[in-house]
Amino acid sequence: MKILIIGTGYVGTTTGLIFCELGHKVTGLDLDEQKIQALQTGKLHFYEPGLEALLKKHIDSHNITFTKDTETAIKENDLIFICVGTPQGPNGSADLIFVKNVAASIGQNINHYKVIVTKSTVPVGTATLITKVIEENQTAPIPFDVVSNPEFLREGSALQDALNPDRIVIGTTSETARTIMRELYKDFDCPIVETHPKASEMIKYAANSFLALKISYINELARVCDNLAINVKDVSNGIGLDHRINPHFLKAGLGYGGSCFPKDVNALIQTAKEQGNPISILEAVVKVNADQPVYFIEKVKQALGSDLKNKTIAVLGLSFKANTDDTRESPSFILINRLLEEQATIKTHDPIVKMGAPHQFPTIEETVAGADALVICTDWDDYKQLDWESLKPLMKQLYIFDGRNMIDKEKVEKLGFYYFGVANH
Ligand code: NAD
């Protein structure tokens, strides 16, 4: 099949390369010239393990090309995937401006029957909206179908996730489009959920919100455990072994972040409000998440003294989780901003993210030099293997605040550090 991917970001680039792996010819379209130039030369404009090698492979074998030419790209392809961003709008709902612009371009350039597939996370009713915008922009009534096919990959393991999904969701009312989508995904060994586009759109929000709910649940539970001197990791383990609960998304920490959970939970809250059925449980999820960095900063203040003005704090990790360079809604920045409000001096480090934070240092040693405290924000492997004996003489005071519960508490305490985790007793 000749497939067009519109929006070559994290999702679009990964999706396009997976289709190449399945034997299809793919065109990647983006409005961002720099991204297109990088991709054309086999360079990924973001960090995702394993993806650049796949990009080079399919560029060399001419399975994938990249362009900025919207008109030609739409005319020459039959199956069009919309993978543009759907950021949070001012009232919490998803801003569909990029999706609407794409739909308008498709309407203006459609020249024969096409299937338009939405991979972007979009609110219930967007398939209908896309249909309307395409129709409004057509000069002649050329037939097309719209399919909702949400993406569930995670940054940091995008390739593995996209190659081995737990399920594929296909939402369409068209038998022709359904047949084409079945053919596209025929080599995948996972359940395929075929449903109405509205249900498909809801599935994506419901899934992300449920995962965010698990995170907020364990974080709020951790605060209670902290007061009771209970190790929340034991509690996570004890409940996660119950197959009805499962161990995933039960790690207490600094709260969820990233480009999906915060905006998707808010968008579902907004959808529910618009229907007159507010989802109070998700409103609590958001509140708990916003409170989690505050709870953690309180730990810092209790240990170092309430005045952080003359304190130097080394923040390790800027991305919202390990193995990605995505800093959107990263808890690290929420923490950094709060520490700056307290007039602390901040030094920062990340193994991959090299811009965007105050006082970034290339090495961990330079970052912790002269610091009163070290705060671990991201669960990078680099921070699991720290050589504490060599870091010790560099620091002014020996405080470790472990926002990811990933440091061996006993080991560092034996070396003379003061350790504070998230109910990591
Ligand atoms: P992204 O910001 O990395 O990429 C979006 C791309 O779309 C950008 O490169 C932008 O330049 C391009 N674009 C915008 N308008 C365009 C247009 N008219 N024509 C061509 N290109 C255009 O976004 P992302 O992280 O890949 O997310 C895309 C969608 O997928 C979002 O709805 C997101 O919620 C969803 N999603 C993301 C993830 C994830 O982990 N990032 C996972 C599942 C679903």
For the secondary structure, the number of strands is 13
Largest sheet: 6 strands, parallel
Q: Please mark out the parts with pLDDT under 50 across 5 or more consecutive residues, or reply none.
A: none
Helix content: 40-55%
Strand order of the largest sheet: 3-2-1-4-5-6
What quaternary form is this?
A: single chain
The CATH architecture name of the largest domain reads 3-Layer(aba) Sandwich
Compounds present?
nicotinamide-adenine-dinucleotide
Radius of gyration, whole Å? 23 Å
Name the CATH superfamily assignment of the largest domain.
Answer: NAD(P)-binding Rossmann-like Domain
Instruction: Briefly note the structural class of the backbone.
Output: alpha/beta
Portion of residues in beta strands equals 5-15%
What letter string, H or E per element, gives the SSE order? EHEHHEHEHEHEHEHEHHHHEHEHEHHEHE
Averaged pLDDT, please?
97
Bulk shape:
globular
CATH class of the largest domain: Alpha Beta
Description:
The protein has 2 domains: 2-194, 3-Layer(aba) Sandwich (Rossmann fold); 211-420, Rossmann fold (3-Layer(aba) Sandwich), CATH 3.40.50. It is built from 17 helices and 13 strands. The protein has helices spanning 10-21, 33-40, 51-60, 70-76, 97-109, 126-137, 158-163, 175-184, 197-227, 232-240, 261-274, 280-304, 331-341, 364-368, 381-384, 388-391, 409-414, and strands spanning 2-6, 25-29, 64-67, 79-82, 114-118, 144-148, 168-171, 192-195, 312-316, 345-349, 373-376, 399-402, 418-420. Helix 17 (409-414) links the parallel strand 12 and strand 13. The longest helix is centred in the middle third of the chain and has 31 residues, at 197-227. The chain is globular, with a radius of gyration of 23 Å. It starts with a strand and ends in a 5-residue tail after the last strand. The model has no long low-confidence stretch (mean pLDDT 97). It binds nicotinamide-adenine-dinucleotide (NAD).
